[in-house]
């Protein structure tokens, strides 16, 4: 008998919610048939489909070939000349969008700025000239290490305008993380700020840059935005104030005509599963993918006020704060600070204040909102909301239900969007005017996306059999390489299953053709020969009224091979043996004897990446009682690991 390598699904979720009729009536794509036709057309004739879509972009020179070559080395729109910044700015100035708000910004202390499209264009042109004056040339790499302030977007679009490649580093990372990324990308210039605000405290960004530069020999110049006014050191001839440089910069700067495949940015992945990878995206395909998916998934309308709460340091912020929405000429809300500053109602206050209609956040945030209590959202008027989205991790069905009832007030479709840094844009998601949603399922592939769920030997699996989630066809916004390491790119994504893209997640397809992502394949645990998704056990735990969050990992077990160890964070501290027993019984009842936890460990907090994803790989070491030698550079809070180890003793 050959060993079964499929993942067994034990979580059953039968609830389903059709899009409200009033929503469907106004939606851009609003029937299953329309979706099916688009999807089939894109599958059968991807070059034809994406060629038609590319008519939505402004080109200096039209492409010769839509799809050039096989996956993994497919090039898109070769022969074409384009500029991403032109597409996000200049073309809107010829329309009524000229005076539309592009960025509606709010700082953590409550200061606000509204930047219209023509203002954004002017600032970007000026800063592009600043970069040129600093000696930045087309193809040079520029590190951006900034708080969530409008200058961050100016800097991105200025790089794009002159064909410099940005590498954005999340503002919470350490000097070492900045140095590593500066060196990997061989950055010439760093753009930063004196500091940024987070929960009322100043994050000292410039000081971290100073420390990083001791180890980053390629960096020649630093440009510093004055944000907090804190005390910093300025090194003569190396460090320059943004406002000084901008004073004399010309507002005339033609967008450079770049090849479709000209590199747009490098972005390092979150590091949930290991050392971060330097994902490279290029111009035309990425722009097209983010533009179209923003339209499709959020059913974007001209008068929407759109808010994605991610930090621009993550791919979600790149694609769905900056490039996708701005290519569509949308009004984008951007917020600098924490969701619980000055109190836990801040997000809902902002939704009411700016009349946000599309709201896109992460499961980790939703679990925090639940823990903080309904009294916060209930204080505010959320009736402007139309569409809600999530991204980043599988969403536990109970968290989904809370989002649906308390925030969406059962009126707003929820789009659970599955994608990755590598995919550039959303791949699998409900369409809000079409797809009945099921809590915990990201539903169906978008047009142009052809997923398959296969066994480890590459055979297609039947309904509800869990396996590897792979992509059978290339798409325009996929990564082109890992910066400086094309062999690692092939090895990481294209060597597991012949001819398919695979980036590590497991999934199953249900009887209705819905995709359920079951977490990372690396996280699967083998209990007495049954391969279980840790995410399903976590969802069962989160369904218990006292549980706020859970992370489940396997540990070596003499009889079963692997045992189930659950790290549980409670809504209120009431650690007791009774509750441990109750949770074990609860999981057993919810998903069966096979999934009975061997250990429940209470923990005030769980180790997460800075982007909020649970880092199970670190918990595995703790559960097994091993010392860890893993990469922790993207860990949010180093003290959590120490605390977990103490709790172990
Ligand atoms: P690394 O690749 O360095 O380990 P990472 O995979 O966490 O880090 P990202 O690219 O930020 O880096 O995250 C992509 C991953 O997030 C996906 O592979 C998937 O595991 C998870 N994910 C994102 N959205 C969803 C979703 N809607 N449902 C389930 N999982 C999701
Ligand atoms: Mg990944």
UniProtKB/TrEMBL annotation:
Residues 536-613 form the AMP-binding enzyme C-terminal domain. Residues 35-88 form the Acetyl-coenzyme A synthetase N-terminal domain. CoA binds at residues 198-201, 316, 340, 528, 588. Acetylated. Deacetylation by the SIR2-homolog deacetylase activates the enzyme. GO terms for cellular component: cytosol. Mg(2+) binds at residues 542, 544, 547. The modification N6-acetyllysine is found at residue 613. Its EC number is 6.2.1.1. ATP binds at residues 392-394, 416-421, 505, 520, 531. It is an enzyme of class 6 (ligase). InterPro entries: Ac_CoA_lig, ACAS_N, AMP-bd_C, AMP-bd_C_sf, AMP-binding_CS, AMP-dep_synth/lig_dom, ANL_N_sf. Its cofactor is Mg(2+). Residues 96-475 form the AMP-dependent synthetase/ligase domain. GO terms for biological process: acetyl-CoA biosynthetic process from acetate. GO terms for molecular function: acetate-CoA ligase activity; AMP binding; ATP binding; metal ion binding. It comes from the Bacteria. It catalyses: acetate + ATP + CoA = acetyl-CoA + AMP + diphosphate. Keywords: Acetylation, ATP-binding, Ligase, Magnesium, Metal-binding, Nucleotide-binding. PANTHER family: ACETYL-COENZYME A SYNTHETASE, ACETYL-COENZYME A SYNTHETASE 1. NCBIfam families: Ac_CoA_lig_AcsA, PRK00174.1. Catalyzes the conversion of acetate into acetyl-CoA (AcCoA), an essential intermediate at the junction of anabolic and catabolic pathways. AcsA undergoes a two-step reaction. In the first half reaction, AcsA combines acetate with ATP to form acetyl-adenylate (AcAMP) intermediate. In the second half reaction, it can then transfer the acetyl group from AcAMP to the sulfhydryl group of CoA, forming the product AcCoA. Belongs to the ATP-dependent AMP-binding enzyme family. This is Acetyl-coenzyme A synthetase. It comes from Fuerstiella marisgermanici. The gene is acsA.
């Amino acid at each position: 008998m050959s060993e079964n390598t499929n993942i067994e699904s034990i979580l059953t979720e039968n609830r389903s919610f059709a899009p409200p009729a009033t929503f469907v009536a106004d939606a851009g794509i609003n029937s299953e048939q329309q979706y099916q036709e688009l999807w089939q057309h894109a599958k059968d004739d991807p070059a034809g489909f994406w060629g038609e879509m590319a008519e939505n972009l402004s080109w200096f020179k039209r492409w010769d070939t839509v799809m050039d070559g096989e996956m993994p080395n497919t090039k898109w729109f070769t022969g074409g000349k384009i500029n991403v910044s032109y597409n996000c700015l200049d073309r809107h100035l010829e329309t009524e969008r000229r005076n539309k708000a592009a960025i509606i910004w709010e700082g953590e202390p409550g200061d606000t700025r509204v930047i219209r499209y023509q203002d954004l264009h002017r600032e970007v042109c000026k800063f592009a000239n600043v970069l040129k004056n600093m000696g930045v040339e087309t193809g040079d790499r520029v590190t951006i290490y900034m708080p969530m302030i409008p200058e961050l977007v100016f800097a991105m679009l200025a790089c794009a305008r002159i064909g410099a490649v940005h590498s954005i580093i999340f503002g919470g990372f350490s000097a070492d993380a900045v140095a590593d990324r500066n060196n990997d990308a061989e950055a010439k210039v760093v753009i930063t700020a004196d500091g940024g605000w987070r929960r009322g405290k100043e994050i000292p960004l410039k000081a971290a840059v100073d420390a990083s530069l001791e180890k980053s020999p390629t960096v020649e110049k630093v440009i510093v935005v004055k944000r907090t006014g804190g005390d910093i050191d300025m090194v003569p001839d190396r460090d320059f104030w943004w406002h000084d440089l901008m004073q004399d910069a010309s507002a005339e700067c033609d967008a450079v005509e770049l090849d479709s495949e000209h590199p747009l940015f490098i972005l390092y992945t979150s590091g949930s599963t290991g050392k971060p990878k330097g994902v490279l995206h290029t111009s035309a395909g990425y722009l097209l993918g983010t533009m179209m998916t923003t339209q499709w998934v959020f059913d974007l309308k001209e008068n929407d006020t759109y808010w994605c709460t991610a930090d621009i340091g993550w791919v979600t912020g790149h694609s769905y704060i900056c490039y996708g929405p701005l290519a569509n000429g949308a009004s984008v809300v951007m917020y600098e600070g924490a969701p619980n500053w000055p109190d836990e109602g801040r997000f809902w206050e902002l939704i009411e204040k700016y009349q946000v209609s599309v709201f896109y956040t992460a499961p980790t945030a939703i679990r925090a909102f639940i823990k903080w209590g309904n009294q916060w959202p209930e204080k505010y008027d959320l009736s402007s909301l139309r569409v809600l989205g999530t991204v980043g991790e599988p969403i536990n069905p109970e968290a989904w239900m809370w989002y649906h009832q308390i925030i969406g007030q059962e009126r707003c479709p929820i789009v659970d969007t599955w994608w990755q840094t590598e995919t550039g844009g959303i791949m699998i998601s409900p369409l809000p005017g079409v797809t009945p949603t099921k809590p915990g399922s990201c539903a169906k592939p978008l047009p142009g996306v052809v997923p398959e769920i296969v066994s480890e030997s590459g055979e297609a699996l039947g309904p509800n059999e869990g396996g590897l989630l792979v992509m059978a066809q290339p798409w325009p916004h996929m990564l082109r390489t890992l910066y400086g390491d094309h062999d690692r790119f092939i090895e990481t994504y294209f060597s597991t299953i012949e001819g398919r893209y695979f980036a590590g997640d497991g999934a199953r397809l249900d009887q209705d053709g819905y995709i359920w992502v079951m977490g990372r394949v690396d996280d699967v645990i083998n209990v007495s020969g049954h391969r279980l998704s840790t995410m399903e056990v976590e969802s069962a735990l989160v369904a218990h009224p006292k549980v706020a969050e859970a992370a489940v990992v396997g540990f070596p077990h003499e009889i079963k091979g692997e045992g189930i160890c659950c790290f549980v964070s409670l809504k209120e501290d009431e650690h007791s043996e009774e509750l441990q027993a109750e949770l074990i019984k609860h999981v057993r009842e919810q998903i069966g004897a096979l999934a009975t936890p061997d250990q429940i460990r209470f923990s005030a907090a769980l180790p997460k990446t800075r982007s909020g994803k649970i880092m199970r790989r670190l918990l595995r070491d703790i559960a097994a009682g091993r010392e860890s030698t893993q990469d922790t550079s993207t860990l949010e809070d180093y003290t959590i690991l120490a605390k977990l180890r103490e709790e172990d003793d």
